[in-house]
Amino acid sequence: MNYKSIAGFIMVILIVLFLGLYVSQMTGYYEYSESKKQALTEDAIQRFEQDVKEGKEINAKDYLQEEINYNNALSNIGMKLSSLIEKGFNKAMNGLFNEISKTISNN
After folding, report:
1. Alpha-carbon span 94 to 90, nearest angstrom
2. Are 101 and 95 in contact (CB under 8 A)?
3. How far apart are CA 29 and CA 94, in angstroms?
4. What CA–CA distances, in Å, run from 8 to 1, 3, 23, 27, 82?
5. Where is pLDDT greater, at 41 or 84?
6. Rounded to whole angstroms, what are the CA distances from 15 to 6, 10, 61, 72, 96?
7. Which of 83, 96, 97, 102 is deepest in the core (most CB within 10 A)?
8. What tens digit of pLDDT does each residue of 27-81 get?
9. Does the reported pTM lie above 0.90?
């Protein structure tokens, strides 16, 4: 094994992961999804308060938003493929780090 190529490969992977996280942070994806949840919660609070003022019977299920299930055959295949890739990547990375550990401990 060529150690320069292994180190280069690891650096490329780290840079790609960093760029992915950076882009998702800069586009505001997480903040958008959280603000969307907050807006829905504020709407539910207003409905709850209005129902309390009107003296209606209160049921918690009336104020919680139901999650929509978007699963279909294609998304299920994608999830299985993603899981398979994850397992393979974990095995490859564990093997790589075990080899690096053996090399370091031998010196």
Report:
1. 6
2. no
3. 31
4. 13, 8, 22, 28, 25
5. 84
6. 14, 9, 45, 33, 18
7. 96
8. 777 677 777 666 667 777 888 888 888 888 877 777 777 767 777 888 888 888 8
9. no
